[in-house]
Amino acid sequence: MTLARSKTGTGAITLRMDTTSGLTPYLQLVQQITHAVRLGQLTVGDRLPTVRDVAAQLAINPNTVLKAYRHLEMQGLLASRPGTGVFVAKELRGPSPQDQAALRRALLRWLSHAKEAGLDAEGVQALFADTIRQNATDEAVAS
Amino acid sequence: MIWLTWRQQRFEAGLAAAVLAAGVAVLVVTRQAITADINALGIPACLSGLGDNTTCSSAYQAFKDNFSAQQTLLGALTYLPVMIGVVLAASIAVEMEQGTYRLAWAQSVTRGRWTLTRIGLPILFGLAITGLIAGVTSWWMQPANQVQGPLRPGSFDVQGLLPPAYMLLAFAITVAGGVLWRRTVPAVGLGIVAVVGIHLAVQAWLRPNLMTPISYLWVSGSAPYGAQDWVVQGGAGASSYVYVDAAGRQLSSEQVQSICGQVVDAQSKDAWSSCLQAHHLGELVKWQPPSRFWEFQAIESTLVVGLALALLLLTVWWLRSRTV
Amino acid sequence: MNVLEARKLGMRYGRRWALQDLTLDVPGGRIMALVGPNGAGKTTFLQLAMGFAEPSAGTVVAFGLSPRRDAAAFLPKVGYAAQEPPLFRRFSVGELLKMGSRLNRRWDGPLAASRLRRLSIGLDLSVASLSGGMRAQVALVLALAKMPDLLLLDEPMASLDPLARHEFMRLLMAASAEQGLTVVLSSHIIGDLRATCDYLVVLTRGRTQLVGDMDEIVGTHQRLVGPVDSIDAIGHVQEIVQVELSERQASLLVRMRGPLLDPRWERYPVDLDQIVLAYLSRNASVSSFETDLAAEAAS
Questions:
Q1: Chains B and C contact (Cβ–Cβ under 8 Å for 3 or more pairs)
Q2: Considering the domain boundaries, does residue C214 fall inside one?
C-alpha cells in the first residue's frame, strides 16, 4: 500500500506483510516504517495512514497496526495528535562517518575470527540473520 | 417477522388465493346448472310432500345420476384444503432442509417469537382460505343436500368445519415431518399420504358410528329411511346386509341366501319379503339423520384438530429443544 | 475483560461427546483463531455460544448472559456467520438487508449498503446468482450490520478460493477497526490466521491443547536440533511439544521457558503451521489437517 506525503505530495513508501518472514507482523511494520524514515522516504510532519486503512489494505489485525504505531510512539519516532492521526515526529540519522568506520573495523576483526573458527561465508550470513532476528524478538518480548 | 414470513410464503399464498378464486368461479357457475336440473325434474314438489312416491323416487334417482357427474369436482374440493395445508407447510420444510432458519435465529428475534410467527401465520392464512372454501361449497351443496342429505361421504367432507380441519392436519403432519427429518420431499409425501389415509379411514370406519345410528328392523313395506338420511348399514344399494332372526341372532347375507335363495332367483320382491316373514327374519338397517349434521361436523373436526394440535405441539417442542 | 466464558462445557450427540470439559475464555477486543481438525468441536462450541443448542454439561456465558435463557438480551450483541452461509435463495441482497432491519433493534443499514457497494455487490442481485465468495461476504456484512459486540464465524471461508478469502479478510479487518469487535474465527486453514488473529486456541477432540496470545506463542516456540542424549536436559528447562529422532540427532519443537545454554543445540524459527501441527499430533487424528496443509503448500 502507498502512503502519500502530506506536504510535498511526491514520493511514497510501500508497506508489505511477509507471512513467511520469521519476524512478527507488528515488528515488520515497525521495521518498514523506521526504514522509510531512515531513507528519507518519510519526513517529519508526514501523516501515516489510519489503523483501519492499513488493516483493510493488508488484511491484518488492526491491533497489530496499533501496536506498531505505539511502539514507534514510545521510541519517539511517531507522535499521535488526537483527532488528526499519527505523524512522523523526528528524523533518523544514521551513525556518523567516524562511527561507521569504527563499526566497519570491528566487523572485519570479527570476520577474521569467524574464518579462523571455521565459519564460511554462508555460515556467516546465516548466523548474522538468525542473531538479528532473535535479538529483535527478544527486544520485543522485553518491551 | 411478519414481513419475513410473508416474503417467504408469498408464492404459496398467491397460489392458494388464485385457486380459491378459480374454485369459487367454478362453483358459482355450476350451481346454476344444479338448481336448474332440480327444477326440471320436478323435485321441489316432491320435497314439499306433493307428488307420488314412484315419480319422486325416480326423480331423486335421476338427480343422483346427474349429480354424480360432479364427482370429480367434489373430489377436488375434498382434497384441495389438504393440498393447501401441505403447500403452506412445505415452505417451512424447505427452510429446515436448507438451514435458513439459522439465519433468522442469528438475528435478534427469539426462537419463541420466530416459531409462533413462522408457523402461526401460515396456519391463520390457511384457515381463512379453507374457511372461505367451506363457506362457498356449503352454499353450493344446499340444493343437493335437500335431495340426498348432507351426511353422504363426498358431500359431508366439503362442507362446514371439515375443510379447515383437514387443512390443519395436513399442515401439521407436513411441518412435523419437515422439522423432524429436515427433508422436504419426504415430509410432503408423508403429509399427503397420511392425511388422505386418515381421511379415508375416518370416513369409512369412524364416521358412521360417531353417534349411535338409528336402527330399524325392516321386515316389509317401503324403506324406513328417507332420501336425506345417510344409511350406514344395509338398505338399497348396500354391499352387504345384516339380518336378524326372531331370537335376535344375526345372520349374514350368505346364510339368508341359503334359506330364501330360490325365491330371489324368481326376481320377485314380494316373494322375498314373504320368505323373510315366514322365517321371522328382518333386515337390520341403520342410518344417521340429517339433523345430526352439525354434531358430526363438530365431533370429527374436534378429533382431527386435536390430532393436528398434538403434532404442532410436538413440532414446537422439537424446534425449541432439539433443533440446532 | 472476558466477553465469552465456557466452563467445563460439554455436548453429547447420542453416545458421542463432540465437546468435553471445555474451559475457555475469550478476551474482549481480540480476534481469536479457533483452530482444529474437522470433528474437533469447533462448530459445536460456536453453536452452543450462539444458543442454538443447550449444552449437555457445563456452562457458556457471554456478557454475563446465558445465550438461551437470556436470548432476548443476548442476541442483539452477537453476530454469526457460517460456512456456505444459509441465505434465502429467492431473496435479493436488498431484501436480506430488509430482513435484518426488521429483525434487529440495532441495525446500520447505510453502513451495510456502503460496504456492499464497495464490494461491487448490487442490492438487486438475487442470492442464487451470487458466487461463493460473494455469499460469504454478504453473510459477513449482514452479521456486522447489527452492530454486534461479539462476532462468531464458523469456518466462513472454508469453501472459498485464496483470492476470495483475502477479500473476506480485508472486510473483516476493516470492520474490526471500524466497529470495535471481539471476533472468534474458526478455521482449519492456518495460513490466513497468523497476520489476522491475535489470540489462538487449538482444539482437538473437544479439548483445548494450546491457548494464548498469537505473537507470544509464535515467539516462544522454537525448533531445537541437537544430540539425542541431552534431550532430558533440555526437557528440564524447556517445554517439549514434539520430538523427532534420527540416528544421532533429535529435532524438538519446544516452548522456551528459560535460556538455552547448551551450545550443541541449534535454534530455528517455526511458523504457525508447524506449531499447530505439533500440538495436534500430540493427540493423533490429524489426517484432514495434514491434507489441508499439503493442499495449501501446493496452491
A1: yes
A2: no
By CB neighbour count within 10 A (0-12 exposed, 13-18 middle, 19+ buried), where does A69 fall? buried
In angstroms, rounded to a whole number, what is the distance separating the alpha carbons of residues A112 and A119? 10
Residues of A in contact with C144 (CB under 8 A): none
Q: Flag whether residue C87 sits within 8 Å of chain B, measured between CB atoms.
A: yes
Residue C288: which pLDDT band, with cuts at 50, 70 and 90?
very low
Of C174, C176, C191, the CB nearest to A19: C191
Q: Which residues of C fall within a CB distance of 8 Å from B110?
A: 71-72, 75
User: Are C107 and C134 found together in one domain?
Assistant: yes
Same-domain pairing of A73 and A124: no
Please give the backbone phi and psi of residue B160, each rounded to the nearest 5 degrees, phi first. Answer: 60, -125
Interface contact A86, partner C, CB < 8 A = no
Confidence of residue C295 (pLDDT cuts 50, 70, 90): low
B269: confidence class by pLDDT, cuts 50, 70, 90: low
Q: CA torsion sign, B167 to B142 to B208 to B232?
A: negative
Question: Which amino acid belongs to residue C52?
Answer: F
Residue B267: pLDDT band (50, 70, 90) is low
ipTM of the complex: 0.85
Task: Count the domains in chain A.
Answer: 2
C31-35 and C199-204 strand pairing: parallel
Q: How far is A81 from chain C (nearest CA, A)?
A: 18
CB contact under 8 A, C102 and B3: yes
- Contact status of C297 with chain B (Cβ, < 8 Å): no
For residue B311, the Cα-to-chain-centroid distance in whole angstroms is: 21
Give the burial class of B278: count Cβ atoms within 10 A of its Cβ; 0-12 exposed, 13-18 middle, 19 or more buried. exposed
- Of the candidates B98, B108, B321, which has its C-beta nearest C76's C-beta? B108
For residue B107, the chain C residues in CB contact (below 8 A) are 75, 99-100, 103-104, 146
For residue C160, how many other CB atoms are within 10 A of its CB?
A: 22
Q: Name the closest residue on chain B to residue C102, using Cα atoms.
A: B1
* Distance to chain B for C15, nearest Cα, Å: 16
Query: What's the pLDDT score for residue B141?
Result: 86
**Terminal CA-to-CA distance of chain A, rounded, Å?**
28
Give yes or no: residues A40 and A14 share one domain. yes
Q: In terms of domains, do C184 and C268 share one? A: no
Which residue blocks in B107-149 are alpha helix, DSSP H? 111-148
Instruction: Report which secondary-structure segment, H or E, holds A49.
Output: none
Residues of the domain holding C233 = 221-282
H helix runs in A39-96, sequence order:
51-58, 62-75
Looking at the structure, do residues A70 and A3 belong to the same domain, yes or no?
yes
Q: Do B108 and C85 touch (CB under 8 A)?
A: no
Best mutation target among C30, C157, C169, C173 (most A Cβ atoms within 10 Å) is C173
CA-closest candidate to residue C196, choices C165, C173, C167, C168: C173
- List the subunits that have 3+ CB pairs under 8 angstroms with C: A, B
Ranked by mean pLDDT, the top range of B26-35, B70-79, B233-242 is B26-35
Give the Cα separation of C113 and C104 in Å (integer): 16
Which residues lie below 8 Å from residue B266, measured CB to CB, with a gap of 6+? none
For residue C154, the one-letter residue type is D
pTM of the model: 0.82
- Closest-CA distance, A55 to chain C, in angstroms, reads 6
**Taking CA atoms, what residue in B is nearest to C44?**
B324
Give me the CATH number covering residue C30: 3.40.50.300
